[in-house]
Structures are given as structure tokens and as C-alpha cells.
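ASSEMBLY PREDICTION REQUEST
Request ID: AP-0331
Submitted by: J.K., bench scientist
Number of chains: two
Total residues: 521
Priority: normal
Notes: Please return the full assembly, not individual chains.
Input sequences:
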Amino acid sequence: MSADQKIVIIGAGQAGGQAAVSLRQAGFEGTITMVGDEPAPPYQRPPLSKAYLKGKLDRERLFLKPLQFYEDSNITLQTGVSAQKIDRAAKTVALSDGETLDYDTLIIATGSRPRALPLPGAESSNVFDLRTLSDIDVLKPNVQEGRRLLIVGAGYIGLEAAAAARELGLEVTVLEMADRVLARVTSPVMSEFYEKLHETHGVTIKTGAMLAELQTQDGAVTAGVLKSGDVIPCDLVLVGIGILPNEEIASEAGIACKNGILVDRDARTNDPSVYAIGDCAHRPLVHYGRDGRLESVHNAIEQGKIVAAHIMDAKRPVEDVPWFWSDQYDVKLQIAGLSQDYDEAVVRGEPTTNSFAVFYFRSGRLISVDAVNAPAEFLTAKRLIAANADISPELVVDQTKTMKDILAEAMAGQK
Amino acid sequence: MVKIIYADHSGTEREVDANIGESVMEAAVRNNIPGIDADCGGACACATCHVYVDPEFLPKTGEQEAMEQSMLDFADGVQENSRLSCQISVSAELEGMKVTTPESQH
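STATUS: Completed
Returned structure:
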């Protein structure tokens, strides 16, 4: 890579920020211009629905790097500006402020956006998303003790917000269309655990609940009306019904997309000069023999490193087993691997003790674990999945053996 | 400001001015210290900020909680003086402390 090479990064989130950092760490000497539509420099999103919402973390501590870092590292960071159009023939990106950037290499790290609630009233002043720092900054003054919060969607984001809001003294109701919370992402055992956890903390959870209407007055929602006819009065509404990849800028430029921008193991799109990383990328999942889109910090960081390595002709970092975490109340959930399409689930430990793990198998192979206050189970499973180890459901639930014993036994079987 | 010294496995040392109240991990990330990735941002969820603490300072770094202990149990190259740097809060007592990053994190 010569020093006159120009790299443009569209998106200044966790993935884009990591790519810029990793490129400089790897000795890239050309220009790096990173364009982000949010006003803030790259920052961590996970604490937004947790410590930051609770007021336990200062804004600056969310930033991946202090602003000075970008100046010192000769990374041009343009915030509050969005990329409008990619011209692949001319190798340019048109920005919302009228400027046009030339690139030799383009990295698309546009992330994702919250799915909007498809109901009249969803644009009201007291309906909030939980995606960006600005979302939380707007929401925060409304989060006050005694207020009635209606959360639409019982995914991880919605449930984390419910936990934070309860700790701040709000009355919380969570609506979920499916017949259990976290239905899209985990097993019935886990759903039941989280339903009980939230109910114990005073959250009202309504599953199988279809929101039919939002009642408004003076531009603010005053109640949610369910298809069943139930009316839930509220002072504010949080929407957490999933996210959509920001792939349009790529698809409009003729880059192949399918639920995300299609990339290979090196994060390259079908245009060799264009890469895509993070939430917006649809990537090979090497541990599972299929492709998919991951919505996680691990993925953003990993692909940021992968793209830098490929541009710098360095060895591709080893792809980690996908992992996730969620903090709610005093419960830490750590997830290793992807449990979709499991055919057998076994539980190690007892959910009533607040410390247990669910191991998921497909065709006799361990594919994932949900570990609740169980870091040993999490870390062991992560290693076993990475090694594609031969391990039986009977062994993982054997509590006469420690996870270390189980790891050793399974790994010995590998040799 | 509290001076913290970060050494990598080869012995190269970098000195950083850390703020009281931030974690030893945050001071490292802010100052671009290699070998402390801290993927989870300090949630004690990933064990990518593992360090060896100068034994003299170890008692001043505070108690390990059960979560940190378990995470360390499974980290590579664990020693008696291993800590997750996201779980050490910078205090005046830590002035001049040296922490070393394990080879596996480079």
C-alpha cells in the first residue's frame, strides 16, 4: 500500500472506527477519511441501553477513542455528514454537504437502523428508539421515577431498557407479539427465565400482544391499544422491534445485497475496491457453513480488523465464534455461537439459582450456549465450538465435572 | 492524573496519565496501548483486557469479583497476578503501577 492511497470509510460506528484504528496500527500511510451521519465520533453502543441510560457513564467514556486520537493519527473524521451516493466507475462518494470524496478503497460501515413501528402515532414526541447516543440523550430527560413506560418488543434491547427503567423507578409494561419474550433469539427455557426475572422486578410482560393503535393527544401517545381491546395508558413509548441493515447506498450502486451487503471472508463485496463491515454486512459464518448477518460488537470489531488486514496484505485474523452479551439487573447473559436451527437443548444447572447455561446442539454437534451468570460455561463452549469438538449433551450437563474437566475431556477426544 | 506503565510481553513500556475513576483498561484504550482490545468495552464479558499486575501493587487494585475470577480461570496464560484491567479502577494509590499484557493478546 503506497502512501498516496485513499481510503474512505462510510459510517463512523464501532466497525468503521475499528477499521480506521486497525489500518493505522498496521502501518497504512495513505489518507483515511471517515464519514458519519451522527454528530458523535465512533462510540460504544452497548452501554446506551444499560449504564448510560441509567446515568452511570459519562458521554466521553462511550467514545472508542478521544477526538484527539483522530487528529494525532491523521484520520479525517467528518461527523454529522452522510454519504449519499457511490459512483463505482469514478470511484467517488457524494456527501450530504455537497462534497465529493475520491477513493481507491471504500469501506462501507453504515450499520443498521431501528425498524419503525408501522402504526399511526409512531412519530409522536414521546415515542423513542434505542439506537444512537442522540436517541438516548433525547429519551433521558423523559425517564423519570413514577412515569409509565410502554416498551414495544421483548428482544434484548427492549428487555435491557426495561431493566434500566425499573432501576430508575418507572412503571414498565413490555409488549411482545410472539408467545414468549426473546422468541426470535433463544429457547423457551431462556424466555421463561427472563419473563420471571422481569416479573420479579415488577415489569408487566404481555406476550401474544398485538399493538393495534396508539392513542394520542397533543402529538403525544397517551395509551397503547391492543388487538384484544386492552388499553395500556403510558407516558412514553420505547420501540425495540429489530433493526434493518443500511444497505441501500450499496445496492443503489449495484453492489450485491441480500439482507445486508454480501461480502466474502475478507469483507470484500463483489467490487474488489469496496468492502462492507459490521451490522450492514452479510458475511460467511465459517463455524456454521452458511452466511448471515450479525448484529454485534464482536462482529463490528472483527470485521474492522479483517478489512484492515486484507487491505494491508496481512494474514486474516482468525474468525472468532460469534458472541454476545446482555446485562439486565444483576444477571449477565453471555452467548457463544448461534443457536438458530438447534435440534436439542440441554440445561446445565438450575434456572431458579440465577446461574445456569443452556447448550444447543444440531445433529449432535454443539453450536451455541446461553450462559446466565455462568462465565465458565460461556468460555468453555466458545472454545469447544471453535474447535468443532465432539461433545455430547450428557457430558455438558454432568455437574459432577467442572467445566475445566469437560473442556479437557472434549479436547482430548479431538486429538 | 495517575501514572500507569503498560509493558508488552517483549518488555516495551509505555507510560500513560490515567484519570482517577476510570479503569486501567479505559486509560489504555484512550492511549492506544496495544494488547488491550477490550472488545466488550468493560462489561467483564470478553477477557480481552487481561494484564499481569506488578505484585507490589496487586493488593491495591481491589478485590476480584466472582465473574472476573471465572473469566480469568479460562483466559490464556493466567498467573497469580492476573487481573482484567476493566475491573481495576484507577486511584491515587496506583501511582507508578506497571501492568504487563500477555503475549496471547498481541
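REVIEWER COMMENTS: Chain A has ten helices and 26 strands.
SIGN-OFF: pending second reviewer
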